[in-house]
Amino acid sequence: MNELTLARALHVLSIVIWIGGVGFVTTVLLPTLRHSTSGEDKIAIFNEIENRFSFIAKVSVLIAGLSGFFMIQKLNAWHRFEDIQYFWMHAMVSIWILFMMALFIIEPFFLNHGRMIKNPHIQSNLRKTQIVHGIILTLSLLTAFVSVLGAHGFIFKIN
Ligand code: HEM
């Protein structure tokens, strides 16, 4: 039971750091940069901050996944994925896969930030980035919300 509680605490802590960071980038950093005047500087600032956060996010996403799968094993809860009443479990894993892909595959192999700096449409790039971040943040927050409800038997009774 102690291990399960510890894993739960690590799970929630990593989610707080990771989704909190996404929230900051989406609601504070991107709007500030979009409305500031200096052209190339703002992309450089954005890259610098995102690169630093990227490392923190990678570690947090890994800890969230490890602690999550550990809890499934401890709770003997693999059967939940066959039952739609546990849709919040599917939601958690889907968000996790989305971020794993973004951080470990799309960002290092497909996103060329250098090209973005030279792009004359910096403003529209930042707008698109903010929209994508906004959608992902909303889905992540909804997932966190229903996961607490689900884990505590608010949605359906847990067996
Ligand atoms: C591979 C990815 C993940 C796995 C395997 C996983 C697994 C789990 C498990 C097994 C639980 C405990 C459920 C229970 O007590 O019945 C849990 C709780 C929770 N998870 Fe995840 N999770 C993952 C990702 C996420 C993500 C991405 C989020 C947020 C967006 C999230 C948020 C939560 C929350 C808020 C709780 C409830 C904590 C509590 O109040 O006790 N998880 N997760």
What does this structure look like?
Helix 1 (2-35) runs antiparallel to helix 5. Helices cover 82% and strands 0% of the residues. The chain has one domain. The chain has helices at 2-35, 39-75, 87-110, 113-118, 122-151. The model has no long low-confidence stretch (mean pLDDT 89). It is an all-alpha fold and 159 residues long. The radius of gyration is 18 Å and the shape is elongated. The protein binds protoporphyrin IX containing FE. Protoporphyrin IX containing FE binds at residues 8, 11-12, 15, 19, 64-65, 68-69, 71-72, 75, 77, 92-93, 95-96, 140, 143-144, 147-148, 151, 158.
Distance between the termini: 17 Å
Q: Mean pLDDT score, rounded?
A: 89
Number of domains: 1
Query: Secondary-structure element order, as H and E?
Result: HHHHH
Oligomer: single chain
What would you call the structural class? mainly alpha
Instruction: Give the distinct bound molecules.
Output: protoporphyrin IX containing FE
Q: How many helices in DSSP terms? A: 5
State which percent range the strand residues make up: under 5%
User: Can you count the beta strands?
Assistant: 0
Percent of residues in helices: over 70%
Identify low-pLDDT runs. Answer: none
| Overall geometric form | elongated
Radius of gyration: 18 Å
Major sheet, described briefly? none
Task: Please outline the helices and strands.
Layout: H1 2-35, H2 39-75, H3 87-110, H4 113-118, H5 122-151
Helix pairs in contact: 1-2, 1-5, 2-3, 3-5
Bound molecules: protoporphyrin IX containing FE.
